[in-house]
Amino acid sequence: MLKTYLKEIRERALKAKDKPAILGPDIDLEPYMRTIEETPIDDLEKLPDEIKENILYSGITPSENDKAGTYFQINHSVVYEKLQEIYKGKLEIMSIQEALEKYEWLENYYSRLIPPDTDKYTAWAEIKPTGGYFIRVFKGQKVEHPVQSCLYIKEGNISQNVHNIIIVEEGAEVFVTTGCLTHLKDQPGIHIGISEFYVKKGGKLYFTMIHNWSEEFHVRPRTAVLVEEGGVFINNYVTLKPVKSIQSYPTVYVRKGAIARLYSIIYGRKDSYIDLGGRLIFEEEDAKGEIVSRIIANDSSKIYSRSEIIGKAKGTKGFLDCRGILLSKSSQIVAVPILDAQHPESELSHEAAIGPINEEEIEYLTTRGFDKDEAMSTITRGFLSLEIPGLPKVAKEQINYAVAQLEKAGL
Amino acid sequence: MTEMLRVENLRVEIKEETILDGLNFSLEEGVHVLLGPNGTGKSTLLGTIMGLHKYKVSGKVYFYGEDITDLTPDQRFKKGIFLAYQLPPAVRGVRLKDILKKILNIDPKKDLPVEIYNYLKSLDLDETFLEREINYGFSGGERKKSEILQLLLAKPKLALLDEPDSGVDIDSLKLIGEALRKIAKESNLLIVTHNLKILDYVVPDSVIVLLDGKFVYKDGLEIIHQIEERGYDYVRRLVYAQNLS
Ligand SMILES: Nc1ncnc2c1ncn2[C@@H]1O[C@H](COP(=O)(O)OP(=O)(O)OP(=O)(O)O)[C@@H](O)[C@H]1O
Ligand SMILES: [Mg+2]
Fold first, then answer.
1. Nearest CA-CA partner of A316 in A338, A283, A292
2. A382 and B53: CB-CB below 8 Å?
3. B191-233 pLDDT, tens per residue?
4. Helix ranges, A65-197 (H)
5. Strand, helix or coil at B233?
6. ipTM of model
7. Contacts of B20 (CB under 8 A, 6+ apart)
8. Cβ atoms within 10 Å, residue B124
9. Residue numbers in B near A378 (CB within 8 A)
10. How far is A240 from A252, CA to CA, in rounded Å?
11. What is the chain A residue with the closest CA to B80?
């Protein structure tokens, strides 16, 4: 019974409400746990201008022409959800609360990949849930246009605790873009995001998450993904704006012959504390994947990049690639690559390099007419644009779009 | 004839080591070849004329009478000096086309002019070459061609060519030679080479030989044959004899 299951989950959560996370600065959450209501809208164009402009930085567009559907949440309320007419019957989008009311079988998915008592963040997301999306793509359906979801905070001193679930059924395919952001400047806030994604046999999930938080925000995503036989999961993560702290360590369980690739682009500014990991667990034969990170640390930012690949079966193959540039004396990048082979026929490798922008490269560009600042920003932009063979076009466009938007805003 | 380049008492140090030690010479307009044994400082000299800042420089460099000693490479580029590198570095994430647009001073969002395809063709390069990250994974010959392509678009007053012909196959040498012939019609050239074949395409007005980072021996074309036959020691003896007298 879903009801009894949820009760159990809640009880486990309550016991962990003060349990600090293993990584990242500890936060006292309780003062932020109040709820506020927003009124739904019937058209994204009716959003306040401030929000409409800001969401562009996260790749979310008010016009939905090239989108399959939209989920839009402000603070603690779903203000808008819509599926384009032509996609009805191919997939469904709703809030997690609606889904829990509708589907008894969610018991088999909800909190199954991420135990509620993992730490105080998973616990509070359960104790005081304030939204999150549920997206299910039906068997064999290929959704050509991306689904966009936006988790927006416009009120200070609150915590947004979302629980998201995506299910890509057998042989189905979908792109999902999530923008998580605020326009607040001086007010503190918290975003906790539990995300559990299930990619069934032969399914494909291309997921892009763009974070645009602000200097007083703490962000604690908790993500786990199960990729079943022959499935594909591609994750792009971009964060380019200053933030108080982010700590996250997504885990992907990769089954037989499946592929998982995690890409992240991180630009640390001001006194941002960013601790981002990625873990691929190759559970069955021929699972493959890579984790690629591009990091720039400026001002007095501190960035941890942890990546981990665990090879448990025959024919598994993984690669880590982490490159970082330090732009200031008071910034820091710590790359922590872990390769853990547990089968003699698992093949894992890594490359990591951190350093300043090569003087000779800057100089070469200056001999072509770039002044020194232009040369540095051209190289920086090139570094972030992430030339990855095989990266899907849509994902690439989204990344480039986000980078370009930030440049316009004077990155 | 007009004096194009003049170097006065040029001293260049890299990491506390003196590479060029008190050079003096001047060049008129035209095509000049710079010869000299390996490690004698030819690349360093071209880099210094371009204004690369890894060097500690004293002395003066004049370009058409103007003191350019304190100008940065981009300022010198704008004055019309272009350096085709011996070993250009790879710059990840920056494409050849991005650089060509900068050279042509056109908006990065606009397309390259169509003439570019003729230039590519003249060097037997594919248009996909434009999309490649500059010098990343380029073969030796491709690097040289990319430098020449950039030079063709830059149309500088002075082209500094650091071994444009080394490591290129016979067919490519021909294409590069033809390109240089074309460039020489509008630009002054200072070419460093070890392979005198390139001189079938551009006929030098003068030859300068750099020895031990200290001496510049300037002569006509005949010296080339002497060097071919007797090696650099022949020039060294000439220079030292000259300096004694
Ligand atoms: N960055 C550097 N650090 C240390 N030494 C250097 C550096 N660059 C050049 N040198 C030294 O300066 C000297 C001159 O080098 P340069 O490259 O100018 O010679 P070259 O005449 O161009 O030689 P080649 O014909 O082999 O290209 C060499 O001894 C070289 O090792
Ligand atoms: Mg050299």
1. A283
2. no
3. 999 988 899 999 999 999 998 888 888 888 888 888 888 889 8
4. 96-102, 120-127
5. helix
6. 0.96
7. B10, B11, B12, B41, B44, B45, B48, B213, B214
8. 12
9. 94, 98
10. 24
11. A369
